[in-house]
Amino acid sequence: MRAPFFLFLISCIGVAVALLLPGWSDLLLVAVPMAVAAAVLIARRPRIAPRRRPPPRQPRTGPPVILDGSNVMYWKTDSPDLAPVRDVIATLMAHGLSPSVIFDANAGYLLYGKYWHDNDFAAALNLPDGRVTVVDKGTPADPLILQTARKTGARIVTNDRYRDWLDQFPEARKRGHLIRGGYRNGPLWLDLPKPQV
């Protein structure tokens, strides 16, 4: 689409010459319509969308693990903090696991004073969209966490015992289904099984 720009430039030069040099005023009869036509072509040219970068490659995923985000964000202090969630995600990934996070609807308000959507948390945690869920207002996250773990065969990172849900989800009683964790004298610990040698 360089031709319309070239024509517009030439016609503008023609108009300037016709106005500045005596005896060249007839050039206006050609240069002005040519400038208008080139301007119309430029205005109507199709907009070319910027090239999209290909989506980042997803790392190879290991066995799924679900974080109870609203529980984990209190592991470091009595105040909600996203840092423990980031620490747990990094530790799980280092162990070859594939973490997803589920938050209560009020998690954004507790952390930042406003509602945060799934993609807001995904960006803050450097996780792909779809790996973070914020439940709807008025819906408890616990049953969704337990149901998702059941569907995907995932274990759950939490210090919650889900006592209110054990009748519906008896697998939460099984040893190793719930991964406990926290901070002892500084560093994070997770009750992960030792790798087999």
TrEMBL record:
<dbReference type="Pfam" id="PF11977">
    <property type="entry name" value="RNase_Zc3h12a"/>
</dbReference>
<keyword id="KW-0812">Transmembrane</keyword>
<feature type="transmembrane region" description="Helical">
    <location>
        <begin position="28"/>
        <end position="44"/>
    </location>
</feature>
<feature type="domain" description="RNase NYN">
    <location>
        <begin position="64"/>
        <end position="174"/>
    </location>
</feature>
<protein>
    <recommendedName>
        <fullName>RNase NYN domain-containing protein</fullName>
    </recommendedName>
</protein>
<dbReference type="InterPro" id="IPR021869">
    <property type="entry name" value="RNase_Zc3h12_NYN"/>
</dbReference>
<keyword id="KW-1133">Transmembrane helix</keyword>
<keyword id="KW-0472">Membrane</keyword>
